Amino acid sequence: MSRTLYICYFGVREPLVQTQVLPYLRELGKGIFTAETRSRGEEVIATTPSAEAAATPPYQGGEPDAGTEGGEAFVPIEVSLLTFEPSRAAADLEEFERIRAELRAKGIEWDWLPYHKRPSAVATAWDIFRGAYYIWRRIGRFDVLHGRVHVPTLMGALARKFSLRKPKLLFDIRGFMPEEYTDAGIWPEGGLLYRGAKRVERWLMKESDAFVVLTEKAREILFPESKETGYDKHGRPVEVIPCCVDLEKRFAGDREVLRQVYSEKLGIGGRKVFVHIGALGGLYLTREMAEVLAAFREKNPSVFALFLTQSDPMLIENELQARGFGASDYFVGRARPDEIEGYLSASDVGLSFVKATFATASRSPTKIPEYLACGLPLIANSGVGDVDLLIEGHGVGALIEEFNLKSYLRAFDRVESLGNISAKCREVAGDEFDLKTVGGARYRRLYVSLTDIDGK
């Protein structure tokens, strides 16, 4: 038996947690393949699996990335989740009890602490202290402290430092946080907050027992030796786990039916739809996306722009209107996670435009596997994470290497020349970004390397 606490500095209801945290935790809750423990000469201890894990077919052997899953042939993991919630209104507290019961039924024990926003640095420091104290008081319950990015990992590291018990610390790095904040203009480059964050980062790199990064580029920067061995120079396991999607649960609908329903909802008929999912502003190249769409409209007047975002709609609406887009030529709005498949089914091409910097070498945009899962080719700017390798290596779209009209039109022509590659895009989504066969399997492999599985 292995017991893990996953520490997340977001609220449980946020879309990122719903799509990029809870699905992974459900996968971890299915347990660790005992085929790997046998390879280390360990005896398998019979335990009672969670209801969800028990419903999965028995493991039939093969490599961890093959995606076959537990039944009797796994050692369960007890999964706990700590989040930070921005709202504590009475109605929210009632909903939290419902969420707690739902997660418990899925094998996840959830607890939360209040999130504080202002003043920013002081509020974050207070949350770090509260989180570390919470973990310290309960540290005997856990074998692994799994921090999602820097702040949660710092909470776990501080709790462990002041405890006699020393659970393993897993630093799920995700992105290069200090550089992302300076690139986005949130922190001044070389300023006090940046220097402090880098100092903390160096300490966490020293203290941690295992690491997750999102891209091969990030691995090459931080742990180049692990590309061949799977371990850093100190013998600590490293995994590259891109942002994955649950293809079975989120992207298994009837594409033609969804396309018809959502096309009617948007009132777009047979127009050519280019879609962007996610934030606008900051590192996201909002003006450049508007420029690209305007150039595409010169080639095809039926172009329709679809933006599904929680950001201020005016960030993109002003840019589109300045380039001649009327109200009937675009839609900007929010979408629930369960609506994403429908909107994408009504689309033709997915857009991903992020400022290419040192920090974004670590990025794995969640929107990309979502596009591919719905059969959409991609148009993206080069230099971000492993996007270049994905598009050029698999032939699922076009790269924009320079922000000028010639490059935009070349990308448009490239995507048009690919024809109907929906089946190919979905195949690449399964091979590279499936939650079970890629994300879940690699996390389980990491936990095998990280923990002593002896049934205790």
In short:
By secondary structure, the protein is of the alpha/beta class.
Mean pLDDT: 90
Number of strands: 15
Q: What's the CATH class of the largest domain, please?
A: Alpha Beta
| Morphology call | globular
The stretches of 5 or more residues where confidence is low (pLDDT under 50) are 35-73
Rounded to the nearest angstrom, the distance between the terminal CA atoms is 5 Å
Share of helix, binned = 40-55%
Indicate how many domains the architecture comprises. 2
Q: Given the structure, what is the number of helices?
A: 21
**CATH T-level fold name of the largest domain:** Rossmann fold
Described by its quaternary structure, the protein is single chain
Q: Please list the strands of the largest sheet in the order they lie side by side.
A: 5-4-1-6-7-8-9
CATH architecture of the largest domain: 3-Layer(aba) Sandwich
How can the largest sheet be summarized? 7 strands, parallel
Topology of this protein?
Blueprint: E1 2-7, H1 15-20, H2 22-29, E2 32-33, H3 34-39, H4 51-54, E3 74-75, E4 77-85, H5 90-105, E5 108-114, H6 120-138, E6 144-148, H7 150-161, E7 168-174, H8 177-183, H9 192-207, E8 210-213, H10 216-222, H11 226-229, E9 238-240, H12 247-250, H13 255-266, E10 272-277, H14 286-299, E11 303-308, H15 314-322, E12 330-333, H16 340-345, E13 349-352, H17 367-373, E14 378-381, H18 387-394, E15 397-400, H19 405-418, H20 422-433, H21 435-450
Parallel strand pairs: 1-4, 1-6, 4-5, 6-7, 7-8, 8-9, 10-11, 10-13, 11-12, 13-14, 14-15
Antiparallel strand pairs: 2-3
Helix pairs in contact: 2-21, 6-7, 7-9, 8-9, 14-15, 14-19, 17-20, 20-21
